[in-house]
Amino acid sequence: MKISNITIGRTFTLLLLATIGLWSCDEDKILKETPLDFYSTANLYSNATEVEQGVIGLHASINNIYTNGGQWTTMLKGKGTDLSYDGENPAGSYWFTNWPVQIIPTDGKVKYFWELCYRVINRANTVIVSIEATEKSDQMWKNDPNQRELLLAEGKFFRAWAYRILVTMYGDVPLVTEPVAGPKTDFTRAPKTQIYELLEADLDFATKNLPDPGQEAAPGRITKGAAFHMLSEVYLAQEKWDQSISAASAVIDGSFGYALMQERFGTQLGKDDPLLGGGDVYYDLFRYGNQNDPANTEDIWVVQIEPNIDGGGNHQGERMWGPAYYRMGNDPDGKRAIVGDNPDATANIYLSTFSRPVAWNKPTNLVAYTIWQSDWDNDIRNARHNIFRDWRYNNPDSPNWFDKPIDFVNDYAEGQRNVLRDTSQYIFPFYMKAASPGIHFKDPNRSGGGSNHLDVYAMRLSETYLLRAEAYLGKGNKDLAAADINEVRNRAKASPVAAADVNIDYILDERIRELYTEELRLITLMRLGLLYDRTNRFNDNPVANGGKGAGIQPHHNLFPIPQSEIDLNTDGTLEQNPGYN
Length: 581
Known about the structure:
Layout lengths: L9 H7 L10 H6 L15 H19 L4 H6 L7 E2 L13 H4 L5 H25 L14 H24 L21 H18 L14 H14 L3 H12 L28 H5 L13 E5 L13 H5 L27 H6 L7 E2 L1 H4 L18 E2 L19 H4 L7 H8 L3 E2 L24 E5 H15 L2 H14 L12 H12 L5 H7 L3 H8 L24 H6 L13
Antiparallel strand pairs: 1-3, 2-6, 4-5
Helix pairs in contact: 3-6, 3-7, 6-7, 7-8, 8-9, 9-10, 9-17, 10-17, 17-18, 17-19
C-alpha cells in the first residue's frame, strides 16, 4: 500500500501518552496531572475501518524508519560497523565514530532506538488488544469476518519486528503486551527466552493468518512470506537450526511463487543511464517502479514511497550512501574539478545521475574493494552500473584535465589536497542500488538534492537464501549451505563457493555483496555476537582509534539500557548490561 506520512489522528492520540521513556523528569507534575478525557482500548476503535487505520499507522511508523530516518537509518544499516563510517565527518562525535565515548547509558542514540521500538510495540499492542476484545461474530466484522485475523496478524507482525530489534540490541528487556496508558515505574527485564517465545507466537500466528503473496490489499502490506522470513531469523538467533530451515524453506520452496529474478525487467528497460553505460537484472531490481512490478518475483516486503500525494515520503538514498563529489573543489589547474552541482553547466551529467549525496556512509575498504577481489570482472554486482568508481574531472573549461580520471595521489602536488576528505567525503565507490539515476521528483535544480522516491526493500528473497545457508552452516551441513549461497552467486555470475570454504565470515561477506544498503547490518552482527569482532577487524575510519575499529569493545555487542529508563523506573529494577556500570 502506498502509505503517506499523514497523522492517523485517533490512532496516535493515546500513543503520544503511552511511550516508555518519554515521561517528564518532574515527578510532581506527573502526579498532579488529571486527564479530563482519554482514549482507551475500549473506545479507541468503533469499526473495522478504524482498526485498519491503526494498522496503517504501524506501516507509516516503520516506513519512516526505513526511509526518512536519515542518519538513524544508516546506523541500523551498518554505519560504524564493518560496513561504513561517517565520510562527511569521520572525526565527529556522534554517529558511531567512537564507540567508547558514544555508546554509554546516557547517550541519545542508545535511548533513541529503545524508544523507537517501544513506540512501535505500544501502537501494535493497542491494535492487538482492541481486536482481541472482539469476536469474529462481532458487528465490527460483519462485512468480512476474516478481516479480524488478518489485521490482528499484521499487528503481531509489527510487534515482533520491534521486539526482534530490542532483544538483539539490549538483551533482556521489559515484556509489554498491553497498551501503556500512563506513567509506569515498575518495569523489570524479562529473560530473552520469554521475548523469543512471544516473537515465535506472534510470527506463527502471522504465518497462518496473513494473506498469501499477491493477495494482500495493496503493495507493501504484510504477507505470509514476510512472516516466515522473519521467523527464520528469530529461530537463527536461538540456534534452532531445523526450525529456521523450515521457515526459510516455506518462502524459498513453498507455493508462494518466489524466485530470484534472472532476466532484465521493469520500467527502465531501454533507458539505462548514459553515464553508467548499461544495466543487468541486479541493476533493474533497484530502479524506480520495479520493486512492486508484478514481474518481480523476489520482493517479499517493500516499504512504500509515494511522491505524488500530500504527505508523500522520500528516500534519502543518495544522501546516505553517495560521496559529496560536488564539494571536491578545484583541479590541479585551479578550475572547478566537478561541475555537476551547477544545472547550467555544459557537463552536468553527474548531477542527473548521482543527485547530491552527503557521504553519510563511506564504505570501508572491505565493502569497496576487498570482497570483490576474487570476482572483480565477472560478478555483475560489481559492474560499473552497479558500483560507480570511474570519477573524472568534468569541467569543459579545463582542457588539460577534462575527462581524465581523478587520481589524488598523482595529480596534485603535496599539500594541495585535503587528504582526509579526498576519499572519505569527496570521491569513493557509489552503490547505485541506493540511487535513482535521472528520476527525481523534488528540487529539480539539484536532481532531488540527495533524496529520491525509490520504494525500499525490507526483505528480499536472496536474503532468505542466505538465512537458510546460515542455518545449514549452524547444523554442520556445509554442502547445503554452499548450495544456497550459490543460488545467489549464480544469479550474479560470480564463481561458486566450495562447501569447504563456507563459514560465517563468508556468509557475512556475501550479505554485503548482495544486501549492502538493504539489510539492518547492526542487527545482523549483534544477533551473531560478532559486532565487536567484525567492526574491530574491518572498520577503517582513518581518524578514530588510529584507523582501526572505531575503538569498539567486546561489551558493545549489547547496548546499555538507557540511564533515563533506569532512573525513572523508581518502583522496579532495570539492571544495567555488563561493561556499562
